[in-house]
Amino acid sequence: MTLLGLLAIGVCLRIAISDLYARRVPNTWLIAACVIATAVIVVGQFSAPRQPWLPHAAGAALGLLALLPFYALRWMGAGDVKFFAVLGLMLGWQALLPVWLVASLAAGLHAVLVLAGRRLGVLLPGHLQMQVNRTSTQWQAHPALRGMQAARQGRRGIPYAAYLALAAIGWVLASIYGGAP
């Protein structure tokens, strides 16, 4: 496994946890990942065999440009866009399409399940709806969930960065063990 692959896995785990828990993608982690990845890429220019830098630079630019329109339309958070650009820097442009496809399918499935769950709640008989409401109230009172809700500060939505992170980890592992580029 390359240093960039290890860096990508570490950053992805941290971003996934943060996005799932607080619906936040910390800029400090993205900046640190950019600095470390850039240093590894620059050092790679002086090693034998020489490591190409262009796929990583192109990945960062394409990652940013690909998701920026979704941010402009308010369909996606800025953290998701920045994280995708950082993934492009760490993994190269060739990883972006497979990572984006897998993450988008997972996020789409998440959305379908959320909508189906809401619809199912309306279709349940009255006594089952009351049981679901009672259980939900008990669950909402749990200290761990209250802490998570406080960390989210009202942010809602699908944790797209977490899905990007899991897809990127899959891509790194597939490139090592499955023969992907």
Automatic annotation (TrEMBL):
TM annotation in the entry: 28-46, 53-73, 93-116, 160-180
Q: Which GO terms describe its biological process?
A: signal peptide processing
Entries under InterPro entries matching the protein: Prepilin_IV_endopep_pep (IPR000045), Prepilin_peptidase/N-MTase (IPR050882)
Transmembrane helix keyword on record:
yes
Positions of the Prepilin type IV endopeptidase peptidase domain: 7-111
Per the record, its GO cellular-component terms are: plasma membrane
Q: Which GO terms describe its molecular function?
A: aspartic-type endopeptidase activity
Which PANTHER family is this protein grouped with? PREPILIN LEADER PEPTIDASE_N-METHYLTRANSFERASE-RELATED (PTHR30487:SF0), TYPE 4 PREPILIN-LIKE PROTEINS LEADER PEPTIDE-PROCESSING ENZYME (PTHR30487)
What this protein is called in its record is Peptidase
